[in-house]
């Protein structure tokens, strides 16, 4: 064996592992991590579900000693271009290790500032501004002036930032000889204390997820203090299943706003520049960020952007977010999310000018939302699909495709719109009239013929069958859509739109369906029972001669009357919605 074969690929040591451990804990959310060694430091890559990619960039100045030798010696200078390309590829070494075991070994003496197996959902409670110990949680936004403080104060801040309040320190030396060899760690509590030697099995690096971010296609870029984003995400309900980032360009000040009151009213009516919206089974949570230098240090948004991500994936970033000082949030035109967390500098070395800031980056693919047309069609025809088999009649969407195509085209137009304005009472009021006429078509023209024209006389003459069919056909799609949402995540998942969630679909939608169908049947004498009931009602009201049957109302007039009733019911429902009251 030659002497060159004994030269380790990597030899590194650090006198205090707390800072290194904190950086690694930021990406400790999977069993395996790919470690890439270069002359500049380490790159730790972890991925999950082929959707989330976490990368920790740990530069060599984090270590007190960092010696790297390429796995293969470079060929002679007269080598071909192909040989030179091979040399460039061999200037780095990559292998896989179980990251959680690596972190546990660094914390073998309990002084590494945290446990690798701590639950990610239990986050540290951050003090609010104004507390006495606020100075220990500085977000590093004070510029160069903050560097003029004494080194001892800076060390104290860094130590407390990473959860290390003890004076006891753990030193570590790691050695990696090359492919096929384990990663050797020598961990010591102090120079004269216990020393532990550990070996971690390494594996050949497998190709990981590639998520290149094209800056030329960037739609949204925000730089803000990590505390603003950290506090917001910590307040969210862990049961949320989707997180949506919404960006809107900064509005040009209204030229007609001359007074402070007018300018303030214009700001209140404008769309938020940055909004985080959490969606869960029990409702939505919205958090708005104004384009204020005190909140957003940098904000770039050329056009309105809206993309959603799984909350469980965003929650993986919380450990890195907790220990970072600044956050860069970027989204490209395909919804690829890039979250970069700038970590506080470690204790300064002999030459602090050359120290490089370490950072952790997460990239996450946006949710491929189920086509909204499928949700709309499920809501419209789901109930009909449930009732038609029992009535032994074909559903309308199996006989004619005009109505399904109509709803699909309308929903496609809505989906192609660059932005949809927020709904408020003044806008919902005229829409309630349109909604009333569309529901009247379902409850008056579509449902009654399925019962009254049935081949079975027991079904066609039964008023109870008519009312039950109206109840199920009008509301079955709503229950189906939410049922699939409860089963989320599955390939059959349908994202329940806000109008069908809490305070969107209420008991009024349930009882008004059989009520309106009953009124329509009463006026048009759809069944013998309703003809007799119509005569009885008019006699009780004194509007007809006793014993003389009442003539039925023409279907068009009866449907228009039912549409007005539905519009009134929907309007009253909107007035009771909490969201509409706050507008």
Question: How would you describe what is shown here?
Answer:
By secondary structure, the chain is an alpha+beta fold. The protein has helices at 18-25, 81-89, 99-106, 151-161, 226-234, 260-269, 311-315, 318-322, 372-391, 396-399, 402-416, 425-452, 457-460, 463-486, 507-524, 528-540, 555-576, 578-581, and strands at 10-14, 32-38, 41-48, 52-59, 65-68, 93-98, 171-176, 183-188, 195-200, 203-204, 218-225, 242-247, 274-280, 283-289, 296-301, 305-310, 326-332, 337-342, 359-364. Helix 9 runs antiparallel to helix 11 and helix 12 crosses helix 14. The N and C termini lie far apart (79 Å). The model is unreliable at 73-90, 116-158, 488-494, 498-504 and 578-583 (pLDDT under 50). Residues 114-166 are annotated as: Disordered.
The Rg value, from CA coordinates, equals 33 Å
Distance between the termini: 79 Å
Helix-residue proportion: 25-40%
Count of alpha/pi helices: 18
Oligomer: single chain
Strand content: 15-25%
Based on DSSP secondary structure assignment, what is the total number of beta strands? 19
> What is the count of distinct domains?
3
Q: How would a crystallographer describe the biggest sheet?
A: 10 strands, antiparallel
Global morphology:
elongated
Which runs of at least 5 residues are low in confidence (pLDDT < 50)? 73-90, 116-158, 488-494, 498-504, 578-583
């Amino acid at each position: 064996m030659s002497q060159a074969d004994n030269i380790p690929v990597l030899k590194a040591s650090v006198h205090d592992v707390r800072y290194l451990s904190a950086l690694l804990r930021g990406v400790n959310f999977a069993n395996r991590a790919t470690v890439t060694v270069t002359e500049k430091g380490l790159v730790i890559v972890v991925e999950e579900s082929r959707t989330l990619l976490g990368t920790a960039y740990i530069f060599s100045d984090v270590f007190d000693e960092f010696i790297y030798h390429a796995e293969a010696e470079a060929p002679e200078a007269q080598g071909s271009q192909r040989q030179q390309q091979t040399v460039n590829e061999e200037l780095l070494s990559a292998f896989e290790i179980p990251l959680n075991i690596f972190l546990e070994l660094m914390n073998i003496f309990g002084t590494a500032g945290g446990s690798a197996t701590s639950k990610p959902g239990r986050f540290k409670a951050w003090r609010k501004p104004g507390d006495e110990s606020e100075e220990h949680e500085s977000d590093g936004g004070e510029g160069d002036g903050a560097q003029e403080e004494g080194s001892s104060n800076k060390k104290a801040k860094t130590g407390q930032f990473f959860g290390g309040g003890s004076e006891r320190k753990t030193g570590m030396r790691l050695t990696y000889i090359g492919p096929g060899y384990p990663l050797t760690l020598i961990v010591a509590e102090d120079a004269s204390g216990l020393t532990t030697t550990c070996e971690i099995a390494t594996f050949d690096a497998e190709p990981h997820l590639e998520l290149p971010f094209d800056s030329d296609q960037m739609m949204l870029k925000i730089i803000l203090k990590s505390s603003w984003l950290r506090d917001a995400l910590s307040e969210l309900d862990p049961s949320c299943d989707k997180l949506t980032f919404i960006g809107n360009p900064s509005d040009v000040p209204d030229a007609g706003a001359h007074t402070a009151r007018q300018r303030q009213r214009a700001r209140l009516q404008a769309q938020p520049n940055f909004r985080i919206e959490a969606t869960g089974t029990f409702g939505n949570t919205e958090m708005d960020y104004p384009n204020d230098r005190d909140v957003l240090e940098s904000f770039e948004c050329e056009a309105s952007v809206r993309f959603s991500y799984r909350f469980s994936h965003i929650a993986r970033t919380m450990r890195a977010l907790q220990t970072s000082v600044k956050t860069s949030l970027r989204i490209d035109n395909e919804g690829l999310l890039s979250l970069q967390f700038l970590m506080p500098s470690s204790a300064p070395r002999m030459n602090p000018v050359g120290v490089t800031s370490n950072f952790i980056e997460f990239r996450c693919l946006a949710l491929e939302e189920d086509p909204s047309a499928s949700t709309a069609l499920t809501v419209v025809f789901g109930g009909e699909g449930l009732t038609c088999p029992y009535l032994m009649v074909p559903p309308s969407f199996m006989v004619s495709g005009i109505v399904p195509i109509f709803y699909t085209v309308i929903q496609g137009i809505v989906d192609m719109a660059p932005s949809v304005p927020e709904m408020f009472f003044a806008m919902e009021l005229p829409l309630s009239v349109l909604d009333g006429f569309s529901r009247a078509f379902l409850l008056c023209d579509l449902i009654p013929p399925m019962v009254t024209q049935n081949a079975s006389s027991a079904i066609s003459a039964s008023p109870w069958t008519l009312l039950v069919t109206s109840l199920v056909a009008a509301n079955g799609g709503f229950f189906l859509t939410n049922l699939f949402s409860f089963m989320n995540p599955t390939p059959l998942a349908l994202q329940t739109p806000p109008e069908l969630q809490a305070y969107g679909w209420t008991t009024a939608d349930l009882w008004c369906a059989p009520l309106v169908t009953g009124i329509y049947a009463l006026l048009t004498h759809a069944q013998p029972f309703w003809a007799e009931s119509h005569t009885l009602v008019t006699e009780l009201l004194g509007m007809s001669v006793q014993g003389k049957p009442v003539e039925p109302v023409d279907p068009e007039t009866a449907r228009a009357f039912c549409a007005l009733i539905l519009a009134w019911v929907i309007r009253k429902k909107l007035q009771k919605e909490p969201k509409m009251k706050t507008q």
